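Example (one chain per record):
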Amino acid sequence: MTTEHEYKDRELRLYFADIDRVEQAPLPDRKQAKYEWLADMQINPQLVADRISWLIGGSYGQGSYIIAREVAKNTRMNRVSKLGQMIAALEWRCPASMARAAWNAMTTGEQQILSNLIQAEIDSYLADVKSGEAE
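Predicted structure:
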């Protein structure tokens, strides 16, 4: 029987192993992922925000759930950027450096739209925490 601590530790290791696989994927796969990530950020930013909601809700596993919630609560970091990079890796299989490059390829207006949508997901989660509906 595993303890809760052992379970969380295992899930975090699985999350980091998954991220490592994304980072170490063959270059053509990473380039394709970057292209798809950029296209979805530009064409369907609501899809990205929805996936971040899923991420905060635990749909991508306990390890990413733990980290996403810590990120959402941490006001001393760029939460929008970190959650975007996390979902780029988990859903689009796009490494962090390429996710940032794709972000920088967008116009300021596109960036603002997506930032606002992601921030709304963070704010929604924090409101749930405050009301006791989430931890």
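Caption: The CA atoms of residues 32 and 87 lie 16 Å apart.
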